[in-house]
Amino acid sequence: MKFAHKHIIGTQQLSKEDIELILETAESFKEINQREIKKVPTLRGKTIVNLFYENSTRTRTSFELAGKRMSADTINISASGSSVTKGETLEDTAKNIEAMDADVIIMRHSCSGAPDYLAKRLTTCSVINAGDGFHEHPSQALLDLMTIKEHKGKIEGLTVAIIGDIARSRVARSDLHALKTMGATVRLAGPATMLPPGLEEMGAEVYTDINKAIKDADVVIMLRIQMEREGGNTLMPTLREYAQFFALNTENIKLAKADAIVMHPGPLNRGVEISSYVADGNQNVILDQVENGVAIRMALLYLLAGGTDAE
Amino acid sequence: MRILIKNGRVIDPSQEIDSNLDILIEEGCITQLDNNIDPLGMDEVIDANGLLVTPGLIDIHVHLRDPGYEYKEDIVTGTRCAAAGGFTSLACMPNTNPVNDNKALTAYMINKGNTEGSANVYPICTITKSQKGKSLVEMGDLKQAGCVGFSDDGLNVDCGEVLRRAMEYASGFDMPIITHAEDEAIKAGGVMNEGRVSTELGLVGNTWVAEAVTISRDLMLAEITGVRLHVCHISTRRAVELIREAKKKGVRVTCEVTPHHFTLTEEAVRGYDVNAKMGPPLRTADDIAAMKEGLADGTIDAIATDHAPHHIDDKNVEFSVAANGLVGMETALPLTLRLVEEGILTLSEAIHCLTAKPAQALNIPRGTLKVGVPADIAIIDPDLQWTVDTNKLHSKAHNTPFQGCKMVGAAMLTLRDGKTTFERS
User: Fold this and answer.
1) Residue A46 is part of which domain span?
2) What is the chain B residue with the closest CA to A133?
3) Among A211, B295, B309, B370, whose Cα sits 20 to 30 Å from the Cα of B225?
């Protein structure tokens, strides 16, 4: 089956078949990462640019490793701010990179829609969204799905609880779209200040009591709380109270199915949204997510840049 | 100079006229309105057979960007755009650079409109000096200079006391206070309507409450001060309800709606279309229904465009930092005629919302074909089909969400003071 997309902007655009193809491809690449010599020539001669307008360690490293293990040339560009504050427009930056014959631009940006903007203005280069504002983070959702499938053998029919600042989470949106497409039930939970309107219409069950969301869930995904947002902001009174009512701990995890898995996109705020006992407990699959992240990103790069059918 | 407009269907809601009449123009003024005026001895005879002849349209909410932002638009191009849309008079907002809070700038705008422009320019001045929300402008002086109302434009006057005093003071000069009703704190940085679409797109939402709360406050302050309050570009059902109720109570309030707020919903933002980014934002289908109800029952007085030309550099950026607004004067008439097609307004009511009613809201002495007035006239083909092409519009700017849309109806000939300001080729 041929992959029909030139860009990966969000999981909202991906069909069930697309997601299955990505997961199958990633599963086949995962083995490469476990070899002693972790390199294949699949993308030799391809140029991949990490264009990051926001700080990132995990995602950028993961994409960079994915490219290098496929023998692509990868470079990183760290930029800051939007085109307005930076002086050069986003379009100019991207076109300059394209003019240097890059094959894929992997982009993270604080403005929702920035990768979509880029994709519409580039002619040859593919764009992968590595997180845009509060919009989408598709590779994270895909690695989440891969991890769930590894542990549960399937996705369809599962109940997945996602807990935290849903309003400001691109991971939650990408997970929601992808999980719904694959036939899972998705519960979103957090303080009401972090639950935006329209989530039910998008197919989610919505809870302000996280115990109800966790009850009988197969998967619990905890979202990172932005620590710097506390104080001078009205989303929650204190981190202390947040931890008391909205964190996953050794008590409320018992409400989930006995074989439930615990996930987190990282980095963890131990003691805030997740207790260390749960984060390190035997239900956690957090490092599996990280490992699968490299495989998923290899698959995305391969599907976008490795297609040489026409040549 | 004697000009005769013959055989047109004359629609002048100010005189409740809708019939086939001829109009005689002498020395720039209308001197006769009658059946079968003899064309003998005329300098020019315009055959308006099959066309509508209306008072020149009046747009009481435009941004002409002059002085200060001439790279976006200026008074020459903005009024040319107006003439092409059938407009002969404009009230322009004070958010120029420097802002229009003084007599000299007011005089500059009026004069440039008269000498170089293609429409009459009626400046709206700020409520507060430098638009800072603190101290009042010299309202009496500005009225004498030709200003028609006061507005801090896109900046809401947050301080209730300042606004109350401004209303009291303005009421003494029988001048309207014009408000862009949006509570900044409740708006909380929102860049589109708050709802499912903003959630899906991951954009910060601007709830209807931000508009409704401010309108509630402003209506009560208008009630206590007796000022004439004009509420700009209402966009929400609650705004219509609040204003309807206030009018019943006798509050001296008028309001306007833009064509885009009764035509487009928040769905237009999908794909992060910066041309669908507006302040206030495009709302929901239910809000559009409320706008139509408000127009039909007269709660909404005027249709105004909020013509907001922006250079491509201000629009071609990430959605959340892109400028608000669209160029609206050439699409206003056909979008209004759609309401007639839908049975929301009669043709006469539609023209009323674009002529005498907006004129009355700001006491602009135009918008009528009464004998003796300056001959500001639009001759309209209500059936002309055309497609919006931003490169063919007359603004310096190209920002419109209607690019490529099919329109029906357009001004064929526009006269100001009896002189042609636009003729469609």
Assistant:
1) 11-136+290-305
2) B202
3) B295
Among A71-85, A182-196, B199-213, B342-356, which stretch is predicted with the lowest mean pLDDT? A71-85
Q: Which residue has the tokens 């997970």?
A: A175
- Tell me, what's the pLDDT at A117? 95
Report CB contact under 8 Å: A89, B316.
yes
In terms of domains, do A156 and A169 share one?
yes
- Choose the closest CB to A117 out of B198, B201, B318: B318
Q: Are residues B80 and B18 both part of a single domain? A: no
Test B202 with A112 for CB contact under 8 angstroms: yes
Q: What CATH number has the domain bearing residue B293?
A: 3.20.20.140
Q: How many angstroms away from the CA of A197 is the closest CA of chain B?
A: 5
* A173 and A222 in a common domain: yes
Is B319 in the A-facing interface, judged by CB distances under 8 Å? yes
- ipTM computed for the complex: 0.91
Q: For strand A73-78 and strand A47-52, is the pairing parallel, antiparallel, or unpaired?
A: parallel
User: Given an 8 Å threshold on Cβ–Cβ distance, is A117 in contact with B200?
Assistant: no
Q: Which residues of chain A are within 8 Å of residue B200 when distances are taken between CB atoms? A: 12, 173, 198, 202
Residue B367 in domain: no
Instruction: Kindly report, residue by residue over B97-151, the tens digit of the pLDDT.
Output: 999 999 999 999 999 999 999 999 999 999 999 999 999 999 999 999 999 999 9
| B236 in any annotated domain | yes
CA A306 to chain CA centroid, Å, is 22
Catalytic residue status for A58: yes
- What is the SS3 assignment for A126? strand
For A31-45, what is the mean pLDDT? 94
Q: Across the interface, which of B196, B197, B319 has its CB nearest the CB of A113?
A: B319
pLDDT tens profile A69-95 = 999 999 998 876 555 455 788 888 888
Chain A residue whose CA is closest to B203: A112
* Same-domain status, B48 and B62: no
Cβ pair B319:A90 closer than 8 A:
no
CA angle A142, A144, A147 (to 5 degrees): 110
Contact B343, B212 (CB under 8 A): no
Q: Is A137 a catalytic residue?
A: yes
Query: Would you call A269 helix, strand, or coil by DSSP?
Result: coil
Q: How far apart are alpha carbons B294 and B256 in whole angstroms?
A: 10
